[in-house]
Amino acid sequence: MTKMTLAKALNAGLRRAMEDDDKVVLMGEDIGRLGGVFRITDGLQKDFGEARVVDTPLAESGIVGTAVGLALRGYRPVVEIQFDGFVYPAYDQIVSQVAKLHYRSGGRVAMPMVIRIPFGGGIGAVEHHSESPEAQFAHTPGLKVVACSEPVDAYWMIQQAIAHPDPVIFLEPKRLYHSTKAEIDVEATPGPLFASRVLRAGSDVTVLAYGPTVKTALTAAEAAAGEGKSLEVIDLRTLSPLDMAPVYESVRRTGRAVVVHEAHVNLGLGAELAARITETCFHSLEAPVLRVGGFDTPYPPARAEEYFLPDLDRVLDAVDRSLAW
Amino acid sequence: MTEFLDPSPSHTDMVQLLNPEGERVSHPDFEFSPDRPEDEAVRGFYRDMVLTRRLDVEATALQRHGELGLWAQLLGQEAAQIGAARALAPQDFVFPTYREHGVAWCRDVDPMQLLGLFRGTDQGGWDPDEHNFGLYTIVIGAQTLHATGYAMGVQMDGLVGTGDPTRDMAVVAHFGDGASSQGDVNEAMVFAASYNAPVVFFCQNNQWAISEPVEQMVKVPLYKRAQGFGFPGIRVDGNDVLATYEVMKSALKRAREGGGPTMIEAYTYRMGAHTTTDDPTRYRLSDEVEAWKLKDPIARVEAYLRRGGGASTSFFAKVEAEADELGERLRAGIHALPEPDPVRLFDNVYTELPPELQEQRDGYAAYLSSFDLEGASR
């Protein structure tokens, strides 16, 4: 048992994936000697060599596009996009090529690729470093999208994503990289990758979160408990496909749901979740599904990000509105 | 300086071994040396080009008859494609655009499968690994990165510079003059140079990106861009199958031996429209087309073979008969292409159908079968 931060857990997970399969190749900007700007790949180039931990030219479309070629050649590329806001130059390759090659080829071509994206805000960064583009990828058939929220999951989910035969957009909550540590039992058997998970049982309101907002939701549940309100917190973990069964089960009991994400609310994951819950649990609902998220504005300057990001109070406010309906 | 900026071809910077009159010409660096007797090789090229042109003409006609949604014509570019493709070793891997029908032909892709894509019965019915020929790529330039990445993989596999010409591999990235403006093409060249990847960038400069002339976006000869990326570039007469074959052969050899990337600009002309939805009379003069007709890639080979006695009259008749047969096969086969089954829309989105998509599929299947029930009860 070792205690690790989320960043260290990802590093350990990548290391193990590379040991398990010599076709796993890491690609990205500054991931070699520097170990990545967040040090997620720290020490890996030293141990696995420059051929397997590839420092690439600074061109995101180039990175993803050449990764497509490597995957066609039988490799399992794991691409690091340095920051969420830098993924857009690669958008065409991801949406038109990575996502569709298996389909276009009638299943003859496999595209086992992981695209790691540090996402979300709260780190006081300059613009384009704090975005939450998950809905754009979850909207694209052919891609799978997952988000980890804590070290144990990070360790296992990255390995499962790499071993998975379909392309996976792997979202990492960057503000939690170096936050709390957790014990990781590397001998354990992990649960399935594409499954959501109830992290805290409750009976009054179901709170759905993923990535960085899981922590916010858990903190809100703790605070609400002090006021006698019982919140059930579900970490969605998989954003495409969604694993709705635990969500439906929960909402049928609580009759209320609040979705929390940093992404803009308009057409965000919350909209899809609200629609599905309404379609499936209509008669169980005591209140409409409420969404707490980033406003429909560009991500603001760092000194204003606290107003933009959903925090404890905004989650509790939504919970109160749901209960008061 | 003026010479450097002049994008028009000149004899000094364009490799040519067979001129438009069908006369062999010499070049200081390249000599036609095929892997079989010369006349036999040239007859082979001729047959490939004639059959490819027939495929193109038939497909265009099928589109006009409403049997294809679209067709991207290659008329005029036969020599560039056949020369490039016949220079390949079996193990080399090719990433095409959507117009490489001649290359597909040489890679034994059934022309019916090309028609399937343009008819809309599938999105590319061939197995890339079976033919070492990738899927057609519609987003221009995207495939040049795939080729470069694939070449990086070949390098990681240790299949470059082993000294065994039957094992060493090269990868070809096809693209056109229009795509040369794309970021992906430029990024591919940066990556290829950076990793010394065994890739040949084969640009068919057919002078027109739909309606935009090459001069509008290309201010120095395209092949000269290679130098800026750090590898050689060369211009070849793309209507000369002999020269294209030789130049491609040397670039592929260089790649296989570990010499790194090369860019080839095959200087050619799109005699037809961009695709069947295009109308070139709106943007170019017929004088230009007429001038290029005199440089026709097939006519010059025919003139060469007839004049030099490299082929008998019966040879030409035989190829013509083969072309007629191919045309008939395509016309007959088009209706035999299987129509897509609606429920199979959900196949191959992922390697396994996720539960939510399974639910969508089942729901759609039930919806469709409800019509059968209505029909039955009536």
From TrEMBL, chain A:
Keywords: Oxidoreductase, Thiamine pyrophosphate. Residues 4-179 form the Transketolase-like pyrimidine-binding domain. Its cofactor is thiamine diphosphate. One of its GO terms (molecular function) is oxidoreductase activity. SUPFAM superfamilies: Thiamin diphosphate-binding fold (THDP-binding) (SSF52518), TK C-terminal domain-like (SSF52922). This is Alpha-ketoacid dehydrogenase subunit beta. It comes from Nocardioides turkmenicus.
TrEMBL record, chain B:
InterPro entries: Alpha-ketoacid_DH_E1_comp (IPR050771), DH_E1 (IPR001017), PdhA/BkdA (IPR017596), THDP-binding (IPR029061). CDD domains: TPP_E1_PDC_ADC_BCADC. GO terms for molecular function: magnesium ion binding; oxidoreductase activity, acting on the aldehyde or oxo group of donors, disulfide as acceptor. Its cofactor is thiamine diphosphate. GO terms for biological process: branched-chain amino acid catabolic process. Residues 47-324 form the Dehydrogenase E1 component domain. SUPFAM superfamilies: Thiamin diphosphate-binding fold (THDP-binding). The keyword Transferase does not apply. Keywords: Oxidoreductase, Pyruvate, Thiamine pyrophosphate. PANTHER family: 2-OXOISOVALERATE DEHYDROGENASE SUBUNIT ALPHA, MITOCHONDRIAL. This is Pyruvate dehydrogenase (Acetyl-transferring) E1 component subunit alpha. It comes from Nocardioides turkmenicus.
